[in-house]
Known about the structure:
Elements (H helix, E strand, L loop, with lengths): L2 E2 L3 H7 L3 H9 L2 E2 L3 H11 L6 H24 L3 H10 L3 H13 L2 H29 L10 H4 L6 H19 L7 H7 L3 H13 L2 H28 L5 H53 L4 E10 L2 E10 L6 H12 L2 E10 L9
Parallel strand pairs: 4-5
Antiparallel strand pairs: 1-2, 3-4
Amino acid sequence: MTVVPSDxxxxxxxxxxxxxxLWGRLREREVWTDEQREEVLDELFPDDERxxxxxxxFAALIVLSTMIAAFGLLSNSAAVVIGAMLVAxxxxxxxxxxxxxxxxxxxxxMGALLMVIFGTLAAIAVGWFVALISSxxxxxxxxxxxxxxxxxxxxxxxxxxxxxxxxxxxxxxxKGSMSSLPGVAIAVALVPPLATVGxxxxxxxxxxASGALLLYSTNLIAIVLSASIVMLMSxxxxxxxxxxxxxxxGIRLLPWVIALIVVAVPLALHTKAVxxxxxxxxxxxxxxxxxxxxxxxxxLDTDIGGDRATVEITVAxxxxxxxxxxxxxxxxxxxxxxxxxxxxxxxxxxDASSTS
Length: 356
């Protein structure tokens, strides 16, 4: 296999700098034949009589992977959820979206888009059904960490999705790297957030469902857009196709860029809120030491919004604890906001004995 750098002078200038070396690797141009390109495109989304079999296989895998993910979420098993990521087939039509965008194959693009929409709706429905038959006494107020982890996306999740899309594009456009595609599927969550949407909708937690749907949307948009960039930079798209599609390529990619900006806004707001919440929690912990040096924090739950905050805290202390209003006053004076404080005191008792 012959590898031809896209710009030798730039590669020499940027050699030795890790970040730019990675960029150079992404821009490597391999020698592809038209038959090899068509083989990869057909593997992503066949455009012939094999399409029916492809759809049947996709449908079976999306149902099975979502069932595994939903059961794993409800049992709070990270290992089971990871297994569902390996089975999930959604990454393939997403990469087909990227390839058809840069190739200007709108028929293949519409087919892949329909597959993604079908997979999305099917996964949500399966998650809802699994929650219906197995949720038992699970309530929105007592959800496990595996579910909650997929309901509060942040800018970090956007970064992961962009990196996964770059990796997916790299794997697709470098012939010896296809074995790494399952690892890319594990790195970015696709089916677990959709299963979470179904589970939380069944439980009536629409706010959590919207957060999980935002995570999935972020992953979808970032993967398609970043994988498209890698395909354009590599030698996967022939020069004559790139020249013909150049005029309309920006128009085709523009909706995805706008969508990425749209999802980035709530992610940024949530990230800002999380940072403020963590800073406030640390401040409360420090204030507790000032309020009662004998107290040990057992549990702390804070909520800050606007000019008012809520603090629910459980402390272990010996003897009579200091009144909650003093802690509330200390927090209010130092932060300049009104605060509601509820303190749950637990006595610390020491029982010691010895034998001669």
